[in-house]
Amino acid sequence: MKLNFKKISAIATSALMIVSGIGFAAAANYPAPFVQNGLADVAIVYGTGEGVSHIDLLQSGNIQSNLQSYMTGTESGGSSSSGGDSFKIEKTSTKWHLGQALSSVMSRDLTDDDLPTLLVDGVYTDDGNTEYDYPQKIKLSQKLNFSMWDDKDYKEDAPTIGIKIPNGDHVLNYTINFAERPDFNVSTMETTNLNLMGKNYYILDLTGTAIGAWKLTLLDTASSGTVQEGETITISTATETYDVSINFISTTQVKLDVDGELTNALSAGSTYKLNDGSYLGIKEILARDVSGSIGSCEFSIGKGKLEIDDGDNIKINDDVISEILGTYTVTSGELVDLTLEWRTDDDEFIAPESELLMPGFEAIKFTYGGYYTPTEETFGVTYSGDTWMLDDVPMIGSTEDISLLYTNGTHILWIGGGDHENTLVTVNGTTGATGANITFDSDTDDYWVASWSDGNDAESYLMRAGSFTKENGINKTNIQYRKNGEWVDAKTKAQTGEVVSIGNVELQLGFIFDSSNNVTVQGGNTNVRFDRLYTKEGLAIYLPVNVSNSTGSAGCGEAGDWEGAIRLGLAISGNGDEHNVTGHNSTSFYLTMSEENKDDGKLRGGNVTFVLAMRGTSPSLEPTVNDIIGENETFAEIGTSDIFRSFLYTALGTEILWDKSQDQRKATVTYHGGESYGEFYITAPNAVITSGESGGTEQLGDVIVTDKEISSVGTKNLIVVGGSCINSAAATLVGGAHCGADFTEATGVGSGQFLVKGYDNSAISTKLALLVAGYNVDDTVNAATYLRNQKPDTTKEWLGTTGTSAVEVTE
What is the pLDDT of residues 258-284, one digit of tens each? Predict the structure, then answer.
């Protein structure tokens, strides 16, 4: 199956904008030629051979996520409709968020203001030419719920967002209501016309009494005529022409000849199904009852027969439509209203690959236009060796890997990474003149996170101090921050008391000691903190803070010592100083993230917590994401990938993928940065809904395919992930399904090495095919990391050993 790693079935696949593939002589640094000028022409191919690791699929997803960050495209406002009546189910200020029932979005009826053709106000004219106005309206079920579900009746093992309507649930009511009520009897109703949902019906027959048991028999798009004995008349419907004559007639029955087809003996109000599927109905028989008079018959021919029986399922062309129930309200012999109630008789879905058409009538259609997200940022909650990490966290001006916690295999010992070194310096509380401060020691500490927020806007920067000197008796240091993946100077030779500014972050420097290479740093105002990180789009991540002291490690005594539990700032009640120690101990830490609300209010959305815990047997316990708390739907597996999907049911709808393919688990977070919502439409059957792009950014769509699907993407630029032993596309590129030593002989790639190589003339693509493969799975991870972060010339060949190091192969 094709797998869109980031948004599996959440948005209908967009058309890929084709980038010229003429020649590759000129340098084409990644992401070219896969994404150029904000537009994409790419497919990512992972292997399915025996022994393949799910990590190859994950790396394909990481590359896709990275390519998405280069997309710009043409701005659009989401999905759009064309070709017929349509109404998007939303209000200007109220969108349909994940986890909401329709009752949270809108409760009013739909009228001709919403669907001007389908629900146009009708005018009924009875047999006496008296006119009665009536509106048509639709009342949607308030129980319709936009959520994630995994249902094999829709698609096997494919957790999907959309609307699932269980068997027997209410969908909608369609009603016509008369303010001035027509007489509901045979003499005034029969042989008249009634418009329902944009179709004109001829009332052939009415049965029932003033006390109930009402039944209307109608013909759809019928044409009528009167034929006399001895003549043949021609009558035309919307699609056919018929020659009609009388074969037999009496005072109560008639047989008609229709294009040579002889009907049964029919009485007034009865119908006959012609061979072409149309229905002939007898309106009235005027037979001779004295010698010399000529009999005649009034009839109608229509393409369909509709029977609406009070309190029972309707019939269309004599077939029972079990989903539609008809009811009448009749008072004092006058018709008050007619209602058609639609209920499902099986599980139904309104989703990316499923729309819902009203049974029988086929006049009303539900369509899903996609999940609108203003933007997307994706990062990982993962591990490296003995360290829990945030991977590729998007920050203002830079995307960074940040070490969170270090373990010695028995306990969590350190905030940051490395053995009693490489500290992430944090401290709880607001900063300012009397607030919290940190002391940074460049001998043992790696960096700190400085964050600013006024409640609506926020910024975070990864920072450090270094180059401690003393000049003329004054201690000085350089303050740096990360920008575009590099350390750059914010202030050189800074002195005690000076203020360092980056964006809205203001830091005041305290004591500086060149002898011990440390500096005290305090926020220049109370909006600066050192205990949380805001992503570029505003997701707050609460960093670990030590309880036992204000800065530094979480327990750096003898092995096995635990100096107090690490704690976590949870800004739930509003002031940002609350702390929760639940789950924080020597072997477990609750890493919590907090969304914005739909109005960009920081720390006002939903929360999700990742339980960073230990697995295995002491003293060789390993980091893992042991549990995830706060998701609003049970995690469901995508195919057989051991990757599980869920969401927060909030206005921003953060998506979480939990990778359980290895003993050590990790997760991927996709944050949408603003109000996100489903776009659902009620339309006429001929309307076409086109899924738009989120936030004016062109989406890659479903660009990840298996090597078995390679023929479907042969006209695109390709990124082939994984070696020739497990990926048949890679095998084509390197000349065979080589494994181990044979792979080394064919490629020059040995143990601990990887290859990133462009093929501009291959059997698998008419454009560039880029092989991203290592000797083993860990080496493939390094290859994908090198591609994303170092952005090599994709037309050349690169041999590397780490995610940051490779050399060009020139021979």
Answer: 999 999 999 988 889 999 988 999 888
